[in-house]
Amino acid sequence: MIIGGGPAGLSAALVLARARRDVAVVDAGEPRNATAGHMQGFLTRDGMPPARLLETGRTEVRGYGAEIIEGTVERASDTGAGFVLTLGDGTRLRGRAVLVATGVTDVLPDVPGLRERWGREVQMCPYCHGWEVRDRRIVVLATMPASVHQATLLSQWSPDVTLLTGEAPEDEDAARLDVRGVRVVEGEAARLIVEQDRLTGVELADGSVLGCDAVFVAPTTVAENGPLTDLGCAFGDDGFVKVDAAGRTSVPGVWAAGNVVNPMGQVVIAVSAGATAGAMINADLIEAEIAERLAA
Known about the structure:
This protein is α/β, with parallel strands linked by helices and 296 residues long. Helices cover 29% and strands 25% of the residues. The strands form five sheets. The chain has a five-stranded parallel beta sheet with strand order 3-2-1-7-18, covered by helices on one side. Helix 1 packs parallel to helix 2 (50-63) and helix 1 packs parallel to helix 8 (267-295). The longest helix is centred in the last third of the chain and has 29 residues, at 267-295. The protein is elongated, with a radius of gyration of 22 Å.
């Protein structure tokens, strides 16, 4: 049973269905990148709309007999002899293994206009969208220490990068920004300015305006941990579930892959993690079947 029908979940479903496993994918239909018109940096899929990738993936996994169920998982439980998922409509699914690929929620700073432009001129990943705003005016909203790193990265794509921060960086951070030609402006973003459905600037609390064509921000990522918490999986200090390289959690038979494990992972990374987890789930099930036969 796979909870989450995004790139990681569908990739695992494809591997498992091709391994002749009975597979059910429960998908709430709320992909993280729903507001993005295109995904980038995925070899052979560069520029494809995310919705098309998911549609293609669903078609492929269904072609091997996997079932895709539209809905939400309200409760996950371990019976000792398998797992039970209780869906929002009361349906109960039973299976021998669970893969959680529920992703994360991005919590943006409370700046008027930011959410409305999210996935358009407002982005988070330089590698995903830096090329699309090359040589344009970019403002980075400093929301955490990593924002300095984000600004230095973006200077690879544009010579006009400004870090908007409440307190100017000092010492090594200041030197690094200077070396990369990143301008620092102290202030607080009050709102985004949009003209004719196009971002043109950021208005500051003092009324001044920073002209820009794109805004990058590092949102707070909150993992959708519900099923993992229900099943008693161990979590790290960062709030994300602990897994090994294959996606095994601390609970035998429970796996996790995609952004619920690695919030910074791009689509191609989530696909890889899902494929790895799917293959290892099948291998573990084979070993369990061998042990059952030998013990009989």
